[in-house]
């Protein structure tokens, strides 16, 4: 699942780049501004998704560490 979030972040970044490229083509000024704003939002989403995937990894590692510790305590008791 963590890999999927990272892949989604990369795809979002690629989409933001494509939108930014469109915003500088020969279009009406209002459409250019709208596409540029949309590209900014997509870049923000990419950053949030990257942060989420990093936090998911940290949570998974902490959960694994806690589980191993719990098993260790159980072995000591037995």
Outline:
This protein has helices at residues 2-23, 29-77. The protein is mainly α and 78 residues long.
Tag the structure with descriptive keywords.
single chain, 78 residues, mainly alpha, 0% strand
Task: Give an overview of the whole structure.
The chain has one domain (2-77). By secondary structure, it is mainly α. Helix 1 (2-23) packs antiparallel against helix 2 (29-77). It has helices at residues 2-23, 29-77. It has 2 helices and no strands.
Which helices and strands appear, and what pairs or packs with what?
Blueprint: H1 2-23, H2 29-77
Counted up, domains total 1
- Beta-strand content estimate: under 5%
Annotation, overall tally of beta strands: 0
List low-pLDDT spans: none
What oligomeric state do the depicted chains represent?
single chain
Distance between the termini: 35 Å
Structural class: mainly alpha
Q: What string gives the helices and strands in order?
A: HH
């Amino acid at each position: 699942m963590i890999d999927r979030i990272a892949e989604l972040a990369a795809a979002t970044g690629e989409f933001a780049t494509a939108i930014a490229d469109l915003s500088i083509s020969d279009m009406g000024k209002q459409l250019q501004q709208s596409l540029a704003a949309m590209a900014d939002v997509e870049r923000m989403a990419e950053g949030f998704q990257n942060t989420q995937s990093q936090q998911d990894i940290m949570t998974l590692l902490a959960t694994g560490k806690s589980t191993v510790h719990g098993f260790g305590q159980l072995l000591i008791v037995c």
